[in-house]
Amino acid sequence: MQPPESPSPGRAEVRIVAASPEAARQVAAVLRRCFAGAEQRSYPAGADGGTRLHLTVDTLHTAEPARSWLAASRSSGQDPTQTDEV
Q1: Which end of the chain is more exposed for a tag (fewer CB within 10 A), N or C?
Q2: What does the pLDDT read at residue 73?
Q3: Region 18-44: what's the mean pLDDT?
Q4: Buried b (16+ CB within 10 A) or exposed e, 25-40
Q5: In whole angstroms, what is the distance from residue 7 CA to residue 85 CA?
């Protein structure tokens, strides 16, 4: 299995895993208010009925409230990788 390709510059691939499709859609709706984005794709997350939702967002075209939050939350580069990150 090959590692996934990185998104093009200015884009971010977002994966949402939720217990229900509605919960995943609500999170995606919030992201779309902050970033321009492409159509979302959803998939079953497992036998327990969960949902995986994938969407691509454009990080170069953000809404004004998101822009100030993003600037304030930029990583210093010293943050350790989370143990559950792929």
Answers
A1: N
A2: 64
A3: 83
A4: beebeebeebbebeeb
A5: 17
